[in-house]
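My current task is to audit a protein record that another person submitted. What it holds is a sequence and that sequence's fold in token form. Thanks in advance; the entry in question is below.
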Amino acid sequence: MLLDKVEEHASFGGTQAVYRHSSHTVGLPMKFSIFLPPQAASRKVPALFYLAGLTCTEETFPIKAGAQRYAAEHGIALISPDTSPRDTGIPWEKSSWEFGAGAGFYIDATEAPWSKHFRMYSYVKDELRELAVENFPIDGSRLGIFGHSMGGHGALVFALRNPHIYKSVSAFAPIAAPMRCDWGQGAFLGYLGSDQNEWKRYDASELMRTMSSRFSEGILIDQGLDDKFLAEKQLNPEVFAAACEEVGQPLKLRQQEGYDHGYYFISSFIADHIAHHAKVLNSGDLSS
């Protein structure tokens, strides 16, 4: 697949780049960022996929999170896609910051007109993953996933539905029970229609109650206690924690005093998240 390099910069001994390509999954051009640590110059390295939140792009994470330093120390690549297709031709795609452009929710839409291009679940799980492994020195058997807010929702869903692909998972302030909040209900109704059985396929708390595979090293979630969206009941980490307890899934839910929903919060704890993934991805045994 042809990749168009948009930009590249030296960073902590490695390279931080943005690429554009024509996506067969969404039927439109897509962009993603990728950090390759210095170790990638001589061998294949593990990779972490990061899914950003509402209104963000493929550049939000590499610019704001400060993750490259820690990824370089652990020898892990970082890959972050855009948060939705862009310029789809849908007249109202930019009318709301909670739905449409910048708000793909990492699902495959089934309702027109969104179903033609809004296929972020398949794009991330299949096309972007395969593109990364085929075009960069990445070990496809050592992949993890994490994200923030809408992207935290996505990361949990991808991991729970595909533990054979993603060996580690963490999240910052995820939308942990989207069927119970306005953001999730609005997105699911618009993208998936009224069938709530279809909604459950993209709700991490619902998925956890039915999953058969376990993440033995645990799931890490950080949640700021001064997060206004926590108070507004958009995130509901306690619902996900209860689901983990029901099935015996180890979960470290850290409630951080004084922190809000933004990237100052993420950058404060990004080192812990990279280390959490590195413990798994750099281990000798990654059997499912």
In short: The longest helix spans residues 263-281.
